[in-house]
Design brief:
globular, about 30% helix, 7-stranded mixed sheet, Purple Acid Phosphatase, chain A, domain 2, alpha/beta, 5-stranded mixed sheet, 7 helices
Length: about 270
């Protein structure tokens, strides 16, 4: 990471919802942001749930999102490293997206040291206590036999069925996505605290929660949730010294953004 460069963290785009028109508007906004970020990006780290539902058949993929996928391919072709942490809505990304776009895929949280700072980075689903129903379903969805069986469905039916279940999951969590539950009930806060009993991290960055959060979990250790690009349009930036949680304002350049600080940024 060279002087003047920055690492960008963003995700939870959920492209495809609630309808084609609004999803396209959001997609164009994300692509415009990536164009600006690429000017000084050492890396771009996508935190998962890029699509509201995604399943790659051997010879078929979901329609749409070509502007976004093309932009990611353009960035990697230009030599900008792009990482992708698989989320719960796009866990069935297999080889098509990485082959076509050049992203480096991660299916579990990873530890990194960047600029002398230690990071724990992941999408955030299924971590911490609770949410046992989802954790059970996640084991099923990631089971190779179950994935093989789903792939036997005709794409027209399989993708329709996936969109249906994905929409039900999103509606179920919608209210919690908009409010701070308290540190004792926030599973990712509890997960971060548990991780810090074994290892020190300067920053623990996650998505999934959809709520912009920037809080000190322990002296010198911050948990940052990156929010989403449906309601908040927030993202993280590491400038080599610290991570800042930022908000995209309108369709202006990056200089038009404002910093969000404090605890839960709501």
């Amino acid at each position: 990471m060279h002087t003047g460069q920055r690492i960008y963290f963003l995700g939870d785009f959920h492209l495809g919802v609630p309808d084609a028109a609004s999803s396209l508007t959001r997609e164009k906004r994300i692509v415009a942001f990536l164009d600006e970020a690429a000017k000084d990006a050492a890396e771009i780290i996508l935190m998962g749930d890029l699509f509201d539902f995604w399943f790659e058949y051997t010879y078929a993929v979901p329609r749409g999102h070509v502007r976004f996928l093309g932009k990611i391919a353009e960035l990697t072709d230009r030599g900008v490293p792009v990482h992708l942490f698989i989320g719960n809505h796009d866990m069935w990304i297999f080889d098509y997206v990485p082959k076509e776009t050049g992203v480096m895929v991660h299916r579990a949280p990873i530890e990194r040291t960047i600029g002398g700072r230690t990071f724990l980075i992941g999408h955030g689903d299924g971590l911490g206590p609770g949410d046992h129903g989802y954790k059970f379903m996640k084991r099923i969805f990631r089971n190779p036999v179950c994935q093989w069986a789903f792939a036997r469905l005709h794409p027209n039916f399989g993708l329709w069925l996936g969109d249906l279940f994905s929409g039900q999951s999103r509606k179920k969590s919608y209210e919690n996505d908009r409010k701070w539950l308290g540190a004792d009930k926030e599973w990712l806060v509890q997960y971060c605290k548990e991780q810090l009993t074994r290892t020190h991290y300067d920053y623990m960055l996650f998505g999934h929660r959809h709520l912009p959060i920037d809080m000190e979990v322990k002296p010198g250790s911050r948990y940052i949730n990156l929010g989403d690009w449906i309601t908040y349009f927030t993202y993280g930036v590491f400038d080599g010294t610290e991570v800042k949680l930022m908000k995209r304002v309108g369709d202006g350049t990056l200089s038009a953004d404002v910093r969000i600080t404090g605890g839960p940024a709501v």
